[in-house]
Amino acid sequence: MTATNDRPPAGAGLLGLDERGVFGIRFDRPLRHSPTDVWRALTDPDRLTFWLPGCLIEPWVGGQVRFDFGEEGTATGAVRSLHAPETPRDAGALEHTWRWDGLPESVVEWRLTPTPQGTRLLLTHREAPRDAAGDFALGWHLILDVLARHLDGASSDEVWAGAESLAAHYVTG
């Protein structure tokens, strides 16, 4: 591999221990849209299924969470806490459980912070099982890329087309 290919892809997530010593996955993404726009893309059922078919996040405590990846499997969970941004300058947060068949339950947190350019989206997947973390990180990377393309009004075809080459960064063996 050349040095160019050794560089992490744009928007790459980090896998490792957090400040409490808990293993997880973390993505920090700038988006050119307000926290309210990003929130609606994540929690409005019609918008979410438009850019991420088969997925659902019910925006209330106890609400159902489902990420259906077809033959790859389905993650389910429940919303544990949320704070919707009420204006474009408000922060927002959503936390839900993540259950994948045969693996221990983990927790996903979406934090939306307003910036002068739009929103800083911080996605953290805490207590992610180490043996599945590479696959989960690949999935989150793709989902966040597709979300950004959706918000920009662009097609996500090239995101999905690049999934195999992106997998080399996260999944080994």
From TrEMBL:
InterPro entries: ASHA1/2-like_C (IPR013538), START-like_dom_sf (IPR023393). Gene3D superfamilies: 3.30.530.20. Residues 33-151 form the Activator of Hsp90 ATPase homologue 1/2-like C-terminal domain. It comes from the Bacteria. Belongs to the AHA1 family. This is Polyketide cyclase / dehydrase and lipid transport family protein. It comes from Streptomyces mimosae.
